[in-house]
Amino acid sequence: MKIAIGMFKHETNTFSPVRTAWEDFGPGGPLRGEAALKAFRGSGYAMAGLIAEAEAMGAEITVPIAARALPSAPVEESAYERIADTLVAAARECDAMMLDLHGAMVAAHVEDGEGELLARIRQAVPGLPIACALDSHGNITQRFVDNATVMPGYRTYPHLDMPETGAKAGRLLREVLAGRLEPVTVLHQVPMLPNMLRGATDAEPMASLIRAADEAEASGLSCVTVFTGFPLADTADTGLSVVATAHRDRAAAAEAASRIGALAWSLREDFTMPLGTLDEAMDEAAATTEGPVILADLSDNCHSGGTMDSVAVIAAALERGFEGILAGPICDREAVAQAIAAGIGATLTLEIGGKQAIPALKQPLRPLRIQGTVRSLAMGRFTVEGPVFTGMQVDLGRCAVIETPKLTVVVSEGRVEALDPLQFRIFGLEPARYRWLVLKSKTNHRPAFRPLAKAEIQVNGPGVASLDLEAFDWRRIRRPIFPFDRRNT
Ligand SMILES: [Zn+2]
Asked: How much distance in Å is there from the Cα of 137 to the middle of ligand 1?
């Protein structure tokens, strides 16, 4: 038995201008073969579960490609075609396929990235069993469902069950190969866009939906997944969906999918979250008496496709007269070059951030003009020691620290979400000594930064990772959809 195991994972933020090229899918391109097996066997990814199941089956395993990139703009056509071609070619050489996919990938020329991929594989090798492990933020399409054999998604968010989901996909595939499972899968799309911060599965409303999916599986269905969807994607299929698989029994799968979909719809208001304005957050900040206080900029983190160059929160803090502000890294190659040209100790006036054109944002980002001293220049390299993404190698490229009387800011060539105080400490800056910490992150900063801070205020600034879906110029999404069309849906 020959099994090809592949990975092609990208959560596409269609509003993001951050490009997604071949090189973004791994250092020097995606991994393959033995190197990929070594990297992902026993790892925290779904691929680990797929590999373990294939090995338990005694299969002859090949890994044609293992490609994953951070969330960013639609995948460039050349990268998509190269990776898809590799997977289609591998499909011709195997008896079954296992894929670690996201479910919300868009390419520059293909809106339904995974559906197109699966359709091409299916066309090349009709009847090939294909097991897919998916992220529960997938925006699932009928085309995907029509071409996959089994397709479980994560049960948890934050995602703590990736390898288990891979193993589940592997076990279902084994049942298919043994002739014990003839899967019939039904997709039920619900016209709603849940707020991502309401998707935590250990709390309501998600806990009820996960419980319903668990009960449906316990009562005999092969696989039931609630996909909350990834809302930062302007596609026809963006949104929550339920996917149910049963052995031969379409009616049973349809009943479970529509019943759990109806439950999600009945809970739709619970999936919204009122967002305060930037001003309101600053009022709240001004009322604090002791620092450090984290000003968490929710709308511009690179793990959701953010450009990491929105400086609106820093500007608002300065306007309020706050002092002792530490911020960054702000991705701005031009500012870094200006600081390097000026040299350490030089005083200069420059504009930081807000320089990238983002057509999808109704309100453009604006740069911040500051006058300051170049305190240091260095390469921004470190290994994450904090509990989120532990061991990740960070390379921010060339960096500069610029100091004004009220603000100390790191500007960088590269991007990193606020995962570890090392992003400041490598430049000799101790975050615990500042009154205000402006960090770009939704939740990933908390384990490493909260112990240093007295309080945290979430700030809904402008940016392509915004939770305020009204901030974007939507064109492709199906209408009506909740919460845009509250009355009509
Ligand atoms: Zn996810």
From this structure: 5
Phi, psi of 192 (to 5 degrees): -150, 150
So what's the pLDDT on residue 197? 86
- pLDDT of 387 strictly over 90: no
How far, in Å, is the centroid of ligand 1 from the Cα of 444?
Answer: 13
Longest dimension (CA), the chain: 73
Rounded Cα distance between 140 and 137, Å, is: 9
Give me the mean pLDDT over the 131-150 stretch: 98
CB 410 within 8 A of CB 330: yes
- Ligand 1 centroid, distance to 335 Cα (angstroms): 33
Q: Average pLDDT, stretch 138-149?
A: 98
The CA 139 to ligand 1 mean position distance, Å, reads 11
Q: How far is CA 317 from the centre of its chain?
A: 28
Distance, C-alpha 92 to centroid of its chain: 31
Which residue shows structure tokens 């319903």?
212
Q: Enumerate the β-bridge partners of residue 425.
A: none
Nearby residues of 312 by Cβ (< 8 Å), 6 or more positions away: 278, 354, 365, 366, 461, 462, 463
For the chain, the average pLDDT equals 96
Residue 166 Cα to ligand 1 middle (Å): 14
Residues 317, 458 contacting (CB under 8 angstroms): no
* Ligand 1 center–CA 185 separation, angstroms: 22
Q: Is there a contact between 129 and 98 (Cβ–Cβ < 8 Å)? A: no
Distance CA 415, CA 394 (A): 9
CA within 13 Å, CB half, 334: 10
Contacts of the segment 388-395: beta carbons below 8 A, 24+ positions apart: 388/419, 388/444, 388/447, 388/448, 389/419, 389/444, 392/419, 394/419, 394/420, 394/422, 394/423
The Å distance, Cα 443 to ligand 1 centre, comes to 13
The pLDDT value given to residue 484: 94
Give the tens place of pLDDT for each residue, 86-135: 999 999 999 999 999 999 999 999 999 999 999 999 999 999 999 999 99
Strand boundaries in 332-367, DSSP class E: 347-352
In tens, the pLDDT along 171-229 reads: 999 999 999 999 999 999 999 999 988 998 999 999 999 999 999 999 999 999 999 99
Kindly tell me if the per-residue pLDDT of 232 is higher than 60. yes
Is the pLDDT assigned to residue 25 strictly greater than 80?
A: yes
Evaluate whether 489 touches 483 at the Cβ level (below 8 Å).
no
- The dihedral sign for the CA sequence 299, 365, 285, 274: negative
How many angstroms does the Cα of residue 157 sit away from the middle of ligand 1?
7
**Cα of 150 from ligand 1 centre, angstroms:** 19
Region of residue 179 (left: phi > 0; alpha: psi -120 to 50; beta: else): left
Rounded-to-integer distance, Cα 245 and Cα 43, Å:
27
How far does the centroid of ligand 1 lie from the alpha carbon of residue 360, in Å? 22
Q: Is the pLDDT of residue 273 over 80?
A: yes
| 3-class secondary-structure state, position 193 | coil
